[in-house]
Amino acid sequence: MALKKFPLPDVGEGLTEAEIVGWKVQAGENVTVNQVIVEIETAKASVELPCPWAGTIRDLLVEPGQTVEVGTPIISIEMAGAEPEPEPEPEPEPQETSGKIGEESNGRIATLVGYGPRTSSAKRRPRKDRVNGTATHGTATPNTDTGTDTRGTATAAPPEPRAPQVEEVRGSVPLAKPPVRKLAKDLGVDLRSLAGSGTGGVITREDVQTAAAPAAPAATPSGARERRVPIKGVRKATAQAMVDSAFTAPHVTEFLTVDVTPMMELREQLKSDPAFRGVKITPLAFAAKAMCLAARRTPDVNATWDEAAGEIVYKDYVHLGVAAATPRGLVVPKVRDADGMSLRELAESLEQLTNTARDGKTAPADMVGGTITITNVGVFGVDTGTPIINPGESAILAFGAIRDMPWVVDGQVVPRKICQLALSFDHRVVDGQQGSQYLADVGALLANPSLAFTY
């Protein structure tokens, strides 16, 4: 029987970690190739992972709710009729030594990083003494400068009361999985000071979190009207992207109020057109089409600032990003080559894209490589806003709510369908004249759709 461990793969472009949402299998269950075994959540999307092999599940190595790095083994599978593969040697960690995987120690076989007998040749890095700042080791060593023992001299400050206890604990290497080690490092918890509550003395996430609790802020009083939610997944990625964009690209936002009555009248006509039967033609589809047409006259809004190369990259295609609110947070999937689509094709793509996003099924690859973005704040009844540019792009358009408002037409005040637009652009790439021209063109196409024949 061969035992293989399946490492968490990079399901996107450059993703480094993911959260285990839930397992679709359990230990002892037989699985086939490409059978879905687990659902994970990355910074970009929720993804179901298929099994790469056929066999029997031995162990689920990661619990639901845990966030692990790409490359971390998450499940082990036994495959009949195959030769067992040797376990890889673990990478040594600073200030710790490990026994060899598979070597017997005290009647047990080492199977985890950090478990196993110590070898006489293993050495530790010097540590800074918590009291006097001098280098110390697990055993007393002479100080070559003074000829005295570094663990205590006549002139040294008195040791901390718990020092002997800590030294005693450091005599053995803690038993913990890689994600738990990372958590301990992030929280500043010394694993050598913990007694594991897991099977065989394994240190768990709960052990680390409990040890870190005294150093954490005071707990919220019972019954207080607030709650705390970890920052992770889509929210974490969105926050970092917005901060990077806001403090990298110099934003300029311009506004335009448009009479879109002709656009809404055309929309009503298309509802009865056989060519558009079965297609949901939304105002967003008209706005998206107008953006693609207007980009032909102002290609700067569809360009990218490449800081490393010292270049502005002009794109001869439009990969239109559409900001979508989902239960997991804000995501921005892309409509590829939107500039080559007809209004019907664009409407179909937008509907499919937004439905997939709301279901949390957007593939990570569909959320990268955009060139310009639209955000439809109008669906929330909002008139407009000052949107933040997506990293790597140069412009984003906020499409506001369409309202019945008084408007002056031929000197007469009449009720019309009015919409507000807001364009944010990167002033390194787009000058004020270019940004204004682009926004005016989008508005003109919505106010008079027949102008599309002139583009």
Observed structural traits:
single chain; 455 residues; alpha+beta; OB fold (Dihydrolipoamide Acetyltransferase, E2P); Chloramphenicol Acetyltransferase; eight-stranded mixed β-sheet; elongated; Single_hybrid_motif; EC 2.3.1.-; acyltransferase activity; lipoyl
In words, what does this structure look like?
The protein is an alpha+beta fold and 455 residues long. Among the domains are: 2-79, Beta Barrel (OB fold (Dihydrolipoamide Acetyltransferase, E2P)); 234-454, Chloramphenicol Acetyltransferase (2-Layer Sandwich). 21% of the residues lie in helices and 24% in strands. The protein is built from eight helices and 22 strands. It has helices at residues 163-169, 178-187, 205-212, 233-246, 261-271, 283-297, 343-358, 432-447, and strands spanning 2-7, 17-23, 30-31, 36-41, 46-50, 55-60, 67-69, 73-79, 104-105, 108-109, 127-128, 135-136, 251-259, 303-306, 311-314, 320-326, 329-331, 334-335, 372-375, 395-399, 403-409, 412-426. Strands 13, 16, 17, 18, 19, 20, 21 and 22 form an eight-stranded mixed beta sheet that branches. A four-stranded antiparallel beta sheet has the order 1-8-6-3, with no helix packed on it. A hairpin with a 4-residue loop joins β4 (36-41) and β5 (46-50). α2 (178-187) runs parallel beside α3 (205-212), α6 (283-297) crosses α7 (343-358) and α6 (283-297) crosses α8 (432-447). The N and C termini lie far apart (67 Å).
Assembly of the depicted chains: single chain
SS-derived structural category: alpha+beta
| CATH topology tier name of the domain at 234-454 | Chloramphenicol Acetyltransferase
Enumerate how many helices there are, as a single number. Answer: 8
What is the CATH H-level superfamily of the domain at 234-454? Answer: Chloramphenicol acetyltransferase-like domain
Domain Lipoyl-binding: 3-78
Enzyme class: transferase
GO molecular function: acyltransferase activity
Domain Peripheral subunit-binding (PSBD): 175-212
